[in-house]
Amino acid sequence: MHTREEKLEAFGRFLDVLDELRVKCPWDRKQTNESLRPNTIEETYELCEALMRNNELEICKELGDVLLHIGFYAKIASEKEQFDIKDVCDKLCDKLIYRHPHVFGNTDVANSDEVENNWEQLKLKEKDGNKRVLSGVPAALPALIKAYRIQDKARHIGFDWEQKEQVWDKVREEFSELEEQIKNLNKEEMEKEFGDLFFSLINAARKYDINPENALELTNQKFIRRFNYLEDHTLKSGRQLSGMSLKRWINIGTKPRPKAYRLKEIKPSHTFIYYRIIHNILDVLSVNSIIQTIHLKTSFLWIILLRKTQWVKLEFLQTVIGVHRPNVHATILK
Question: Residue 258's Cα: distance from chain center in Å?
Answer without folding.
Answer: 29
